[in-house]
């Protein structure tokens, strides 16, 4: 909170398996007026679709409250800022992926794979080809998230990048939420792969 602008809203989701009590949450929210704590608490687990599910549910909840969302910056409980100015950076670049295009950092932080090279069946394990296979095997990813390239354009790709600190235009993120029905939300929370590093980036 100390390193963000007084006009920046911080929206937090507390996992259902965390140890916060209702009294703890009230005390935290009262101490930080710009902090809005989602009243719904969902299960979360590392290397699991439940993290992407929680991020999307946060956006959905904010939309229901009528909060104006100009940009969404994804954050983790073990992340922190070391200086001020993130708002200026986000407003200047619009998206963390846009800023990486054409730079020496792109290959280190963003991976794109032609869908034709992805294994056709989901495979166990954490090697890149196995992870991509499980992401692609999730039907909503193929039918809703993955881009449909128009004729004459480059082949369709699946994009991977770290989600901590990634940021995207608010309207774009709201479109993802609107594209999901309740069954898709629930099945996302059951995927055994870190969907938060594919879902928003590919969309």
Give structural attributes:
alpha+beta, two-stranded antiparallel sheet, two-stranded parallel ribbon, 203 residues
Question: How would you describe the overall organization of this protein?
Answer:
This protein has 203 residues and is of the alpha+beta class. It is built from ten helices and six strands. Helix 1 links the parallel strand 1 and strand 2. The longest helix is centred in the first third of the chain and has 15 residues, at 50-64. The radius of gyration is 17 Å and the shape is globular.
Largest sheet: 2 strands, parallel
Overall geometry comes to globular
* Whole-angstrom Rg: 17 Å
Q: State the share of residues found in helices, binned by percent.
A: 25-40%
User: Would you list the SSEs in sequence order as H and E?
Assistant: EHEHEHHHEHHEEHHH
Global structural class: alpha+beta
Q: Uncertain spans, ≥5 residues at pLDDT below 50?
A: none
For the terminal residues, how far apart are their CA atoms? Answer: 29 Å
Give the SSE map:
Layout: E1 10-12, H1 22-31, E2 35-37, H2 50-64, E3 71-73, H3 86-93, H4 96-100, H5 106-109, E4 110-114, H6 128-137, H7 139-145, E5 157-161, E6 167-169, H8 170-179, H9 182-188, H10 199-202
Parallel strand pairs: 1-2
Antiparallel strand pairs: 3-6, 4-5
Helix pairs in contact: 2-8
